[in-house]
Amino acid sequence: MSAPAFDYDKEAERYDASRGGERRAAAAASAVLGLIPGNAGTLLDAACGTGSVTRRLVAAGLDVTGADAATGMLRRAADRVPGRVVLADTRQLPFPTATFDAVSAIWLLHLLDDAEQVVAEAARVLRPGGVFVTTVDKAASHDVRSDIDAVMAPRPRRTARDRCDLVASYAGRHALLPAGRASFRGCGQGRTPARTAADVRRGWYTLLPPGTPLAEKLAYRLEQLPDQHVPRAEPEFSLRAFRKPGPADA
Hints:
CATH superfamily: Vaccinia Virus protein VP39
Strand content: 15-25%
Mean pLDDT: 91
Strand order of the largest sheet: 3-2-1-4-5-7-6
Radius of gyration: 18 Å
CATH class: Alpha Beta
Helix content: 25-40%
CATH topology: Rossmann fold
Number of helices: 10
Order of helices and strands: HHEHEHEEHEHHHEHHE
Shape: elongated
Low-confidence stretches: 1-5
Structural class: alpha/beta
Number of strands: 7
């Protein structure tokens, strides 16, 4: 079973501040809620991270359980939604079949070589008529056609594990039906040349090891761009929803 190379326990302390904080969490939660049936009562927030989105789903009146495999992230989530989080691998969930009315997985599938396992588990724990909501095409969302993207174009990239057509095929193999789409803006996530160069030098791009000739070349080129501390356009993230067939489909 594959796992993300990035260490989210170490990243937990700066995770929210480096990814749009409360504004992004509010936008994500609003988009998720727009895709969940109005009669949903229970929701599993798979890979809930620090709980910034989870907290808003709870505030909307849902009975939410958050699950995450990173203890550092989960400690922060536990502070935000006490008594509602569990340490769990989202590819092997510790819940009985047909437990939840909805499952959300935000910014998760792109991390996993075996992303289909998350979709399979979501389908299993959903009740008939329940909905699975997930982000897709995350890496593509960050390409806003800026000068930063032009500089970073030569970097090596993995094949996207959360490509929309792939996720739809996973859903279909586990008897989930398309049920809607939405998008939300990554508030506060417009990249600056200076910050991107720093990320390159610290090894943020996992296929671009710091200190290698290509990493140094790209960091140098980023540092030559104008407006070093001016954020470029913010990404627009995509969501897809899939429904588990219920009595109405009979």
